[in-house]
Amino acid sequence: MIGLIESLLLVLVTLFVIYFIRSKPDEDSSIPYAKYGSYPIIGHLIAFTRNRTKVLLECHRRYGACFRIRLANQRFIMIPSHADWMAIVKNSSFKFTGTELGIEIFGFSSVFLDHPELDPDTHRLYVQHLKNRDGLHPMVVEFVRRMYEAMRNEKVSLEKNHSASKWISTGLLEFSHRMLFRPSTVALFGDIDTAALEQHFRLFDNKFHYFFIPFPKWVYSYFLRKELNARSSLGKSWQNNCDPNNASNFYRDRLAVYESHSDWLPKEEIGKLVTAFFWASLGNTIPAVFWSLFYILRDPKALQHIQQEMDVHLPFISLDEADSSTAYWTPEQIDSCMYLESAINETIRLVGAPFMLRKCCRDAQTSLEDGRQINIKAGENLAWYAGVSHFDENLFPRANEFIFDRFLNKKAESVPGYMPFGGGKSICPGRFFARYEIKTCVAMLLRYMEYQFKDMKAVPKQKLTRVGFGIAPPDHDVPIVYRYRVCSH
Ligand SMILES: *[C@@H]1O[C@H](CO)[C@@H](O)[C@H](O)[C@H]1NC(C)=O
Ligand SMILES: *[C@@H]1O[C@H](CO)[C@@H](O)[C@H](O)[C@H]1NC(C)=O
Ligand SMILES: *[C@@H]1O[C@H](CO)[C@@H](O)[C@H](O)[C@H]1NC(C)=O
Ligand SMILES: *[C@@H]1O[C@H](CO)[C@@H](O)[C@H](O)[C@H]1NC(C)=O
Ligand SMILES: CC(=O)N[C@H]1CO[C@H](CO)[C@@H](O)[C@@H]1O
Fold first, then answer.
1. Which long-range contacts link 240-245 to residues 24+ away (Cβ below 8 Å)?
2. In 10 A of CB 466, how many CB atoms?
3. Which residue from 381, 340, 312 is spatially nearest to 95, judged by alpha carbons?
4. Binding site members for substrate
5. pLDDT of the residue at 360
6. What number is the average pLDDT over the span 357-373?
7. For residue 457, what pLDDT band results from cuts at 50, 70 and 90?
8. Residue minimizing CA distance to atom 9 of ligand 5
9. Which residues line ligand 4 (CB under 6 A)?
């Protein structure tokens, strides 16, 4: 079903798109336009609104390794095979237009286009803090401590209410959000008022995907005013919050890099950059925790294996006993939980379906695995979609099922077609930290609490409009009850 705002936007796009359509006589005619699911003028927009995974799987089946699609005024050459895509990602004729995306989604000023030198500086920080163990270690340790603290605080306040042993009703998504939001935010950004950010985050995140579509400006100010306001409020709070206590070194170094460019980088834009970083730290990890818990809790065999290995590797530190000398779980202990790791990788395979985009910046050729050579014109957009690979039965037998030990002892590099975090230069730099967060959070929630679903049969779908932008949340929350365990079993 299409929501009201979607339908309105659809009508608007239809009206305005006519102005944008130009015929492109010199395009490579050997790349077929996918007629399946397409309507005049708007192209595949409706099919995409309904179920983009379905339409792209079907187009792949009908048109093979390369086909064109259109979403209103935007045209893409789809390259479904991951091997073909990797050849494109490696070639400098095809550029990742990250700054342009930042302008659309987070409202960055176009001043960034004139200052590509910020890129290598931020990249250096990714390498230093996010891509090597020494950099990650303190952030993971701090996250574990903050997570533990959040759970203890909740337990203490329940005890004050004399309801520590009672079942508490909530939604699993709401629960995942609540458990992750604060620990993650304070571990990265230090002691800040997370409650003030939370409401704005929720509003903006809820409509995040619309900011990818280059609607005319007035469409946003008319239909997404609340979200635009939330986005600018986030920017302002970060602007005023530039040196919190106990922030991670990663965040501190990042601010220092921005500061070193202050000759052209205004404070306001720094607020937007931090907003983007903040969104990226939560927008996909919250749904990842939700889906991981959802799949694991409903699979008794998975749950049993995971609980057994947690008993071995992750000591049960009573929530009542911790003090300043407590040794919390270390990253090494968390690493040892192989079944949990596999189950989370498998969850992300099922629900993590990003689009990867490249723009061709000079006329180029690329050869496909099927032996064809295709010509791509400067200005054309190319896209790869993880949803097609992740459901390819040849790569992942019984692709629609959650098989918790599918990835047991497999390394990311050894599984072709598995790219939930993208690939090449635009690969998500926070993927290692994100995995630690998801894994730690899920481990803690399984270790310290027990759950019951109100209705085992209710299986939510992914929120359709959000599919393609990382990990989509469910289209509705799943009612559960939970309570704190009294001991480790
Ligand atoms: C979308 O289509 C895929 C493939 O047909 C299917 O597995 C999935 O359940 C569909 N999603 C929704 C939300 O209907
Ligand atoms: C404890 O009770 C108070 C008042 O009834 C309520 O506002 C609060 O949310 C409760 N705390 C928890 C953690 O349930
Ligand atoms: C990239 O594409 C161009 C244009 O098709 C081609 O000439 C060049 O050899 C490719 N470079 C690499 C590294 O594959
Ligand atoms: C599974 O996740 C871990 C990190 O938690 C990663 O190191 C490993 O490579 C992943 N495996 C696959 C197949 O992606
Ligand atoms: C856990 C931790 O590092 N806490 C510190 C947070 O910042 C205040 C003020 O700088 C310190 O006093 C705490 O020790």
1. 241/189, 241/192, 242/270, 244/189, 244/190, 244/191, 244/192, 245/190, 245/191
2. 21
3. 381
4. 284
5. 95
6. 93
7. confident
8. 245
9. 341, 345, 407, 410-412, 415, 418, 435, 439
User: How is residue 42 written in tokens?
Assistant: 């708007």
CB 361, CB 93: distance < 8 Å: yes
CATH superfamily of 79-484: Cytochrome P450 (1.10.630.10)
pLDDT the model gives residue 19:
46
Q: Which two tokens stand for residue 432?
A: 């290692």
Amino acid at 218: W
Structure tokens at 194: 């997370």
Q: How far is the CA of 165 from the centre of ligand 2 (A)?
A: 14
How far apart are the CA of 161 and the centre of ligand 2, in A?
A: 6
Has this prediction a pTM greater than 0.85?
yes
Confidence check: pLDDT of 81 > 50: yes
Ligand 4 mean position, distance from CA 305 (Å): 18
Angle between the N-to-C axes of helices 45-63 and 4-17, in degrees from 0 to 180, rounded to the nearest 10 = 70
